[in-house]
Amino acid sequence: MLLGYARVSTNDQNLDLQLDALRSHGCERFFSDVVSGAKANRPGLDEMLKNAREDDVIVIWKLDRLGRSLKHLVELVAELNERKIGLQSLNDPIDTTTAQGRLVFNIFASLAEFEREIIRERTNAGLAAARARGRKGGRKPGLSEEAQRKARIAESYYKEGMPVNQISKDLNISKATLYKYLRYRKVEISQYQKQTS
Is 156 considered catalytic here? Predict the structure, then answer.
């Protein structure tokens, strides 16, 4: 059986184009989601995977409609292959029901893995070169100049006895940020103020 899956990111977008194409291709059952591709929770996809049986073929408009990322897509196709379920994309050269389609998909997967390895190698080489010059990787510790200015003002207000809520409001920062600034300035914060703020 051909199972059609369609997805759009927002309610403003329309599923009709995808569903019409899936219908024209001969799909008998349809599943859909209106959710961002990055979201893990996709009820329509989950329902389709639960209902798919051996020898079924899942048909999609494009690969980006199915996977959250290339890694997720590769894992999903591996799961489908284990369950003997095919995948066809109407607008990509992917059809895992054929030897050629499986080859193309595996090339995509290999290229994605190769790209991850290259990025990892470059990152490690960059960190090693920086360490050799006496620098450490990562974000510089401390606060920006603007944050340091606000931290000095916060310290002054706090020591004058201004309520924490008022300081936060005046400086347009959250209380959590205020306490971070005060700790940065090594200001002792009274338990009473912590409890009443």
Answer: no
User: What's residue 134's pLDDT?
Assistant: 77
Spatial distance between the Cα atoms of 8 and 17, rounded to a whole number of angstroms: 11
Q: Give residue-wise pLDDT tens across range 17-39.
A: 999 999 999 999 999 988 876 66
Cβ(66)–Cβ(45) under 8 Å? Answer: yes
Q: Please report, for the chain, the start and end positions of each structural domain, with discontinuous segments joined by +.
A: 2-108, 145-196
Kindly calculate the radius of gyration of the chain based on its CA atoms and give it in whole angstroms.
Answer: 27
CB atoms within 10 A of CB 22: 25
Q: Is the pTM of this model over 0.85?
A: no
Q: Write down the catalytic residue from 9, 24, 168, 174.
A: 9
Q: Homologous superfamily of 2-108 in CATH?
A: Resolvase, N-terminal catalytic domain (3.40.50.1390)
Residue 1, classed as helix, strand or coil, is coil
Q: Are 151 and 184 in contact (CB under 8 A)?
A: yes
Instruction: Identify residue 166 by its one-letter amino acid code.
Output: Q
Q: What tens digit of pLDDT does each residue of 84-128 get?
A: 999 999 988 788 888 887 887 778 777 767 777 888 888 888 888
Token reading at 36: 């961002």
Q: Contact 59/2 with Cβ under 8 angstroms?
A: yes
In which band, very low, low, confident or very high, does the pLDDT at 192 lie, cut at 50, 70 and 90? very low
**Would you list the DSSP string of 7-27?**
EESSTTS-SHHHHHHHHHHT-
